[in-house]
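re: ur question from yesterday

yeah so i grabbed the chain u mentioned. its 268 aa long if i counted rite. heres the sequnce exactly as i have it in my notes:
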Amino acid sequence: MGAGTRDFLSDVYWIGWRDVVRYLRPLPLFVIRLVSPLVMVGLFALSFSSIGDSLSLTIDSVRYVEFVSPVIFLLVADLAAILTGLTFLSDRRSGFMQLLASTPVSRGAIAVGKVLATSMVALLQGVVMLAALILSGIDPGSSSYSFAGVVLMVFLAGLTFAGVSLVVGIRFRTPEAFWQGLAVVSFPLFLVSNALSPLSSMPAWFAVVASANPMTYAISALRHFLIPGSFPMSDLQLYLDIGVVCFFDLLLIGASVWHFVRRMDESL
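ran it thru and got these structure tokens back, copy pasting raw so excuse formatting
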């Protein structure tokens, strides 16, 4: 490993560590980040189980609340990833970005560190949520394989949303514009996917569009890990789903780094 690579990884570590501490050190924020997944799981289980049971909704002999359970993990990843763009806006307003620009810190490392930091927060909240789902009756199985699979997919989904959030944060100077821009991107990622209904029940053209959405593959893998008996898939299909999500993550991280480096001076 060359000195340049070591310096880059060191910059990524310290930028990421700063943001993780910033997100979790204040006790009220730490409590909120632990409690919010529990509240979301409770509301999710109550609302979707009531709707599904009252309408006798099942998909592939699975209760509807279990079928849509991956959605709650993606919502947590999305909410955590929002911090990437918001902290960039905050750092720019406070002058911290100007300070970093005057140091030898790699600008690409700043972007990667911020994306990884919020993905780690999403991972932490995903673990809390997984425990809450188990307590609520949606059991992903006792195997460490299922548990590790869910955590992995939450982390990868966090990378996807964090990359989007950072690009949007770089493009817009105000929180108001940031929120509007992020909504235009993040909501279609949920709605144009297999989150609420299987691809087989969609119109043909909509299923084709959903098949190009990385969240479709993340949800399929999450469904397999959460309810392995009801949504089995071959190793090849599982690796394909994970590979597609990883591919899109690399594209988004690369785009965010390029955009960050290219726009940093004019954004400041």
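noticed a couple things. The chain has a mean pLDDT of 77. also The beta strands are 58-59, 62-63.
anyway ttyl
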